[in-house]
Design a protein that fits this description.
This protein is α/β, with parallel strands linked by helices. It is about 55% helix and about 10% strand. Bound molecules: adenosine-5'-diphosphate and zinc ion. The site of zinc ion has 5 residues, from helix 16.
Length: about 550
């Protein structure tokens, strides 16, 4: 309890500081603003008496005629020397903002004793970001499934009461997972923008190293604010910092996490509050966090495919003067494995280079320079990547082709060569029938499909070139062979030999089928190389 009081006092001090800042801001408003060039003119004419030299955006100056003016701080290195050499009095001052914050910080440290780790950011967090963001789903380019998932959530957020009335269980928390820089934060902001709700953001890492009770208090106040605002989107970035798999003995983290879960279980559709969290990896999180009624909706935000990269490049060049010669299609092609953030940075770097060169348009050359800077030292890796990409494409196409040929009751829904969070590249199957009994032939075909990746590699590149990429395939096939041997589906008595015999039989089927349909395999793997991810329909187009 005492800690909370201390915290309140700290908050009070900070608010006072904020008040001070606003007042200086207002005082500034009464001064006349003078363009820098006019100011220099005045200085040279000996009209300037005194300058308050600071790090702020505007310098304050007093003129001999009694006027007080503001002029933009040119932020040159020898600004002070220039003023002095013109015979102007100069006093230096640290920014009042900095001064007040320093004061508050010092005060806070005193109050908290031992390890005061309060920073500006923390202060911001308590206040939250109350504005409704301007971004909407249109500004975020993600895969279809990701977007659909988010639209669902938006629908609930707009009309939670309807869900309540129907007795439908609303989504409690949404876990966005995917590599860094893929737009998870942006998506959360866009959800708020889309639904016209305010956005409240914190980062899990901000709760590390705080005092017991502080984190929990912050969480509670965050929810309170969101409710008071008539609903909102609460976003917790880097939730791993809070909800890592049982690292025991961290009382603070535990308390913060519990506060979060308690708050989450306490709200209903009427509140119009939704909690989103982001993590790079789902599997590092404590399972308790992902349970029903908690973060029970999981939305993958993966690396962009080629088409998405093109759109992201377009989004981030919308407001930039582009040389029409620049082919965005080409750049989308070349930026395999780039995240949205990296694409954004590529465009930004190119723009910076155009400014530096004094050019009016962003040209292919600027793009090239920016690209080289960003991928410096990765040239070798990229060549290797291209080769590997082809291998992976052939491998995955092999699985897909055999699924189509050997398992007519299953349907392929997605095929990708991009690494995903759910494991390496791969294919997603939808199996319609709920079956318990399988014939020997059907099981054989399953095994052949499992080995189809390796078989495709061998057929296309030769026995010497097969990769270790099929490691888990082999294990899966082996497990199935093991069971088949137990079910006496082999003529062999010896278990080990039975297993090997079954696998060889399946592999022979796989190789034969692929050999017979080599052209389809090539078509499919080429498309996969090009587009990286194919939908069920697109796959059918190539294999049927
Ligand atoms: P994450 O939260 O997944 O780490 P961010 O949302 O912070 O990624 O992305 C950082 C920036 O990169 C965004 O503000 C945006 O400018 C750009 N960006 C990232 N992903 C996308 C995307 N899918 N579409 C458009 N811009 C993106
Ligand atoms: Zn495989």
């Amino acid at each position: 309890m005492r800690k909370e009081i201390r915290f309140l006092i700290l908050l009070g001090v900070m608010l006072l500081a904020l008040g001070g800042m606003i007042m200086t801001q207002q005082k500034k408003g009464q001064r006349e603003e003078v363009p820098y060039l006019s100011f220099i003119e005045m200085a040279k004419n000996g009209e300037v008496k005194h300058v308050v030299y600071s790090d702020e955006a505007m310098w304050q100056a007093a003129l001999f005629d009694g006027r007080e003016i503001l002029t933009p701080n040119p932020r040159t290195e020898n600004g002070k020397e220039m003023l002095l050499s013109l015979g102007i009095e100069v006093t230096e001052r640290i920014q009042p903002e900095v001064a007040t914050v320093l004061f508050a910080l010092l005060f806070g440290m005193m109050m908290f004793g031992r390890r005061g780790n309060m920073s500006m950011e923390r202060f911001d967090i308590v206040n939250g970001d109350r504005k409704v963001p301007e971004v909407t789903f249109r500004d975020v380019i993600v895969g279809k499934e990701t977007l659909e998932g988010m639209r669902d959530v938006a629908h609930y957020l707009k009309d939670g009461a309807a869900y309540e009335k129907m007795g439908a269980r609303p989504p409690r928390g949404v876990m966005l997972y995917g590599p860094p820089g893929t737009g998870k934060t942006l998506l959360a902001r866009a959800l708020a923008g889309e639904t016209g709700k305010p956005f409240f953001a914190v980062s899990g890492s901000d709760f590390v190293e705080v005092y017991v009770g502080v984190g929990a208090g912050r969480i509670r106040s965050l929810f309170k604010k969101a409710r008071k605002a008539g609903g909102g989107v609460i976003f917790i970035d880097e939730i791993d910092a809070l909800g890592k798999k049982r690292d025991q003995g961290n009382e603070e983290r535990e308390q913060t996490l519990n506060a979060l879960l308690t708050e989450m279980s306490g709200f209903s559709g009427k509140d119009g509050v939704i909690v989103l969290a982001a993590t790079n990896r789902l599997d590092t999180l404590d399972g308790a966090l992902l349970r029903e009624g908690r973060f029970d909706r999981h939305i993958e935000v993966g690396l962009p495919g080629r088409e998405e990269r093109l759109q992201i490049l377009q989004v981030h060049s919308r407001k930039k003067p582009m040389d029409p010669q620049v082919s965005m299609e080409n750049w989308a092609e070349r930026t395999v494995l780039f995240s949205g953030a990296q694409l954004e940075s590529l465009m930004n770097e190119a723009a910076i280079r155009a400014v530096r060169g004094g050019d009016a348009l962003i040209s292919e050359r600027h793009m090239e320079q920016a690209f080289l800077a960003q991928t410096a030292g990765e040239e070798k890796k990229m060549t290797a990547n291209r080769k590997e990409k082809h291998m992976i494409a052939v491998h995955e196409a092999g699985h897909a082709l055999l699924t189509h040929l050997l398992l007519p009751q299953s349907r392929l829904t997605r095929l990708t060569i991009l690494p995903s969070n759910k494991g390496a590249a791969g294919y997603s199957l939808a199996i319609h029938e709920d079956r318990v009994l399988y014939t020997r032939q059907e099981l054989m075909h399953h095994m052949a499909v499992t080995l189809g990746g390796r078989a495709a590699e061998e057929v296309m590149f030769g026995k010497e070139q097969v990769t270790n990429g099929a490691g888990s395939d082999l294990k899966k096939a082996e497990a199935l062979a093991c069971e088949m041997a137990e079910w006496r589906m082999s003529d062999e008595e010896d278990g080990e030999r039975a297993k090997r015999g079954l696998m060889e039989e399946a592999y022979a089927i796989a190789k034969q089928k692929i050999g017979e349909n080599r052209q389809r395999l090539e078509g499919l793997s080429r498309a996969l190389m090009e587009r990286e991810t194919l939908s069920g329909e697109e796959i059918l187009h190539f294999v049927a």
